[in-house]
Structure formats: C-alpha cells, structure tokens
DNA sequence: TTGAAAGCGCTACCAC
DNA sequence: GTGGTAGCGCTTTCAA
C-alpha cells in the first residue's frame, strides 16, 4: 500500500501539501494540486484511515448495536441507517449482541477503541448506563433511555390500534401476549392495548412472555391455547410470535379469521408470506433507521435546535388474519 | 481516556514496560508487573486499538461481507462466525452489500483502510478479482471463487436429494425454480436436481429466476402456476422463494401436500413456522459460519497443511409440504 | 530487567 | 503557497 510519503515523492512536493489536497483545506496552487492528484491516481493511493483516526480521534465509522440479527425487524432498521450514513461518507459496522449482556459491553468497548464517530443502539439491557460516559454521541433506536436522543415507534397508539381493530371486527375475548418486561417499547404496546380494552370494558387475558425469539414463541403459542382455548382475538407481541401463534392455531384446526383473529406487530417482510397473510401493526423500520441516522449525524456535527426524541407513526396493515369490517358497523 | 503514558506515570515505570506487560512479552519483574497491573486497573485503562493497529498493520477486526442482511440465512451464518472468532479474541464487523456491486468495493476498501486482519465474504458478484490482491486473507462462504479458500454446502447433492425425495413421494411433473445464474451454489443445486431427474427420466420444467429477494419471489410464484398449472412437485431455489410459492399455491386452492409437494433450500428459522411447515434441504448455516471462521484463523496464523475448500453436508428436513413416503415403497 | 527513542501514516501548526 | 516537523498512542529495537 502506497503511503502519503510515496505520493509526495512522486509528485515532487511535501507530505504537507499532499495532505492539503487530500483534505481540501489550506492554500494549494492549481498546478501543484494537479500534480498531486496525478500521483495519487498513479499509485492508486488510499489514505490510511487508521493513521487518520489516530490523529483525529475520530473515524468514518458508525457503530450499530443490534439485539438479535436473526429477527428480521433489525436488519431492516440497519438498511435504513446504512442508506443514510453512506450518503454522508460514513461506513456502518454492525455488532450483534445476541441478547447477551457481556457482548454489549464488548462491542461498546471495541467501538470506542476503534474511535467510532457515533453509535446507534437498539439493545435492550435493563437500565444500565454505560452509555452515559461515552465520548461519542449515542442514539437509541426502537428504545428509549432516560433523556438520551432516541427514535421509536408509537407503541401506545399501536397497542390501542391493534385492540380496537380486533374488537371492531367482532372479537369478544381477547388474549394479549405481553412481550419482554424490560423492553419499554413492548410495554407501551401492551399498555396501549389494555388501556383501551379497559375503557371499552372488553374481556381480556394476558400471557407473559420474556423474549422475542423464534424458539420460545411456539411454547407460548401452546400455552395460550391451553389456558384460553376459547379466545377469539389475539394480540401478539411481534410478528415472529404471531407466526408461531398462527401456526399453532391452524394445527389445532381453528378457522382464521372466522373463529379467531390475530394481529402482529412490526410488519416484517415475511408477514405477508404467511398463510393466511398476517394482519399487523406496521412499524416503519426502514424509516426509523433513517431518522436515527439523521439524528446521529446532527449530534456528530454538533448542530443545535432539533428534536432529540422522535416518535414515529404506526399503521394498521389489514391482511387476512382479521375479518373485513362490517359496512356501516 | 487514559493512555499508556498515564499508566506508566502512575506505576512509576516507562511506557516500554507497560507495553511489555500488556503484550506479555519480554522480561518484566514480578513486582513491576504487579505495579503496572494495579495502575491499569486504577485508571481502568484500555489500550487504544487504533494506535496498536497503526503500528502492527493488523487489527483485532475481522470483516464479513453479506449480500443481503434481510435474508435470514445470512444472519445465521454471521452467528456462527461470531461465536468462533470471539473465542479467539477477534471482533466481527459486518458489511451489508445489499446486492449492489459498488457497495462491495466500498466495504472491501473500508476493511483494508481499517486494517482488518481477515475477511469472510458471502457476496455474489460475478467473477471479479478484487479479492486477489488483498493483503489480508479471504475466505469465501456459501460461495467459491477460483481456488480461494472456501466453505460451502454440497449443492449438487442437495439438488439430487430434493429431486429424489419429491419423486419418491409421488410427484410426476416437477417444476424447478432455477435461482440466480451467477451464483455457483444455486447452479449446483439446479444441476444436481436435473441430472438426477434426467437419469430417472422424470418430466420437469424450469422457471428462471434472478434473485433471492422477497419482493421478486411472489412474481415468480404467479408465473409458475400460470405456465405450469398442473405441476405436482416444486423445487424452490431457497426457502424465501418457497414461502412465496406456498402462499400462492394456497391462494389458488391447491391442497398441500396432497395435490402439490414443495421443497425449499436452506432451512431458515421461519420455515417451520410456515403453514404447512416447509419441507426443505437444510444447509448447516451456523456450522458453515463456524468452519469459515476456523479456516480464516488458520490462514491468519499462517498454519499449513489443512483443507482449504470445505464442503458441508446437506440434509432433507421432512415437514408437511411433502407427503409421507409409502411403507415398503 | 528496564528505559530511551524511533517510527507506524497522517494532520496541523509554524516558518519561510 | 509550500515545507519542516511535532505528535496522535502504541510497539519494538538497542543500550544500559
């Protein structure tokens, strides 16, 4: 790999001059600049980002922390972030926490030790504050944490929406899968739903769940139908869990949506490929990622006067696990 | 952040000594070592990896290139790699190519500029050779490229297996979704299947497809049933595509597996949550990731005398989109 | 067994 | 406008 010295020698100038044209600052004569650019091309020189980063204490890297890369919701978030930051010349590096606490610490440290310019985190460890004393700005995505900058979907409204759509379409005995207790976003959905159901005096039951993982979901699905065999409307804590419930319901011979309605949360790409296609509350994952990236870049640039906590709208996606709403109902 | 100088001062020794205990090389007296370790703890000092990397021209980072982070197969690969390399003290950084060629170049460059110690790539651009003149070792995963080190599943056997299982269970008019032409692994499956079908003189048709993406898959599913409405056995190029086909088949009122059998490829986590649960050819994604990581680490350590091209076994996973095989059939 | 110092590749200050 | 050079934090000779 050619270094800045090689370029300087080739162009017959000093490294200082090369550095100036590289960073496009300071005075440099048109001819000199041309010389340098030629030399750069001839040697196909690429600046060593490590050396740059050592001096500047900042890199072109942005770190993303994901709780579980296998849940399709999170890759979608990542896509939105990527598209936004690459436009600004940053590169994304993803760390997968795998829902394990020590991994989160490791990655934060790795990010710091490698001088990332900013961090976006979607992890869900309980109220720890390693994020408080970081030198780089942090944005919480699909999460909130004290008054840190954050981007999140409107879970309360989402829960309310899911409950009301279910009841509007005729469900009388709702069952709610509650979602992990330590996850604020999951609790928002839950609280939004039960607040509405209580206000409307609709009968409902609750199944406690502790994760969003594939493997656990089938277990809760079984538990649900054993405990509440005559439920006729289910609010799943997310689409992955909904898929498991759907599967179990069909295995038990339930007619969907005739006997049983089901609404998920997230709207992951596979939801429409399920059978029947899953009705769900859509979180705008891609756009949430984009917003989080924009917010982070503002923080990096030390801009002021912008909204630091962004609530994104959710939307009911009507597919075939819910009935058609009755006309003039 | 404390630096090595601060530690040296605190311990009353030189930075050279601190460096020696940090890297556990050279002579250092027991007492001195203790002093240094205490100082490190008091200051909660973490070495600056950027400075280290600048000197050594090597980091603790391993780069992973994924074609599409949204296809659940790839995150699973990533998990296997992660588990293996973290045991060895490396950290994984993931780059998502999004099936776009320039992004692959960008990431390779970013990886180089940041001195990654090794690269694992699962991307599928057509026969380019940017990988030839890289300073760090490269392992191809779920891909092969010339004689570069690689880890891949036995696609030929997988294709043969899928075809024979379908026929064994009574399908007579097979349709094959071919998969992207530039992807060697996809072509292996295809070739394995048609070789067997020809040898057995079974009737089959082919639908050309050009990607593995969700959005395209439904299109091909429709095309399939329009062109070959009386097909009674389908080999999908992967599970994502199979999900789309399944969905479309049920929409058309086909009885599965009675009228129509279907086999996917990969065995992604959602396959068992589909309805009916998808029969498929399983690639051991997690283990493939682990093997690729092991191979890379051997390359990094400049070991010799080990297998550089690893073919992993595939396996038929019998679920409910295929019929039970007849006893004494 | 330890310390002084050079140097990894780059940026930015100061002189000219 | 341009060049010399200190220094970012670390590792590794080389001397002592």
TrEMBL record, chains A, B:
Q: Which PROSITE patterns match?
A: HTH_LACI_1 (PS00356), HTH_LACI_2 (PS50932)
Reading the lineage from the top rank, the first entry is Bacteria
Asked if the record carries the keyword Glycoprotein, the reply is: no
Which GO molecular function entries does the Swiss-Prot or TrEMBL record give? DNA-binding transcription factor activity; transcription cis-regulatory region binding
HTH lacI-type domain location: 2-56
Cross-referenced SMART domains? HTH_LACI
Q: Which UniProt keywords apply?
A: DNA-binding, Repressor, Transcription, Transcription regulation
| Protein name, per record | Catabolite control protein A
Source organism per entry reads Peribacillus loiseleuriae
Lineage at the top is: Bacteria, Bacillati, Bacillota, Bacilli, Bacillales
């Amino acid at each position: 790999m050619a270094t800045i010295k090689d370029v300087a020698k080739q162009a017959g100038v000093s490294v200082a001059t090369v550095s100036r044209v590289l960073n496009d600052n300071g005075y440099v004569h048109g001819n000199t600049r041309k010389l340098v650019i030629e030399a750069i091309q001839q040697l196909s020189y690429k600046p060593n980002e490590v050396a740059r980063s050592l001096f500047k204490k900042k890199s072109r890297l942005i770190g993303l922390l994901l709780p579980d890369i296998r849940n399709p919701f999170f890759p979608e978030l990542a896509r939105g972030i990527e598209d936004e930051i690459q436009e600004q010349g940053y590169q994304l590096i993803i760390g997968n926490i795998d829902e394990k606490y020590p991994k989160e610490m490791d990655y934060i440290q790795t990010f710091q030790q490698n001088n990332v310019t900013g961090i976006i985190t979607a992890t869900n460890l309980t109220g720890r504050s390693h994020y408080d004393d970081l030198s780089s700005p942090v944005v919480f995505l699909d999460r909130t944490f004290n008054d840190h900058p954050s981007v999140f979907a409107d879970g309360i409204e989402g829960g309310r929406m899911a409950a009301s759509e279910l009841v509007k379409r005729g469900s009388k005995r709702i069952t709610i899968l509650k979602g992990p207790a330590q996850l604020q976003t999951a609790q928002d959905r839950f609280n939004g739903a039960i607040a509405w159901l209580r206000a409307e005096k609709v009968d409902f039951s609750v199944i406690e769940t502790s994760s969003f993982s594939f493997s656990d979901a089938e277990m809760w699905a079984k538990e649900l139908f054993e405990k509440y065999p005559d439920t006729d409307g289910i609010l799943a804590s997310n689409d992955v869990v909904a898929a498991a419930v759907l599967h179990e319901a069909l295995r038990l011979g339930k007619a969907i949506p005739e006997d049983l309605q089901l609404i998920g949360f997230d709207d992951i790409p596979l939801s429409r490929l399920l059978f029947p296609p899953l009705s769900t509350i859509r979180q705008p994952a891609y756009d949430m990622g984009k917003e989080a990236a924009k917010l982070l870049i503002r923080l990096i640039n030390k801009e002021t006067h912008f909204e630091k906590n962004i609530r994104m709208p959710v939307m009911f996606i009507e597919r075939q696990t819910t009935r058609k709403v009755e006309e003039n109902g």
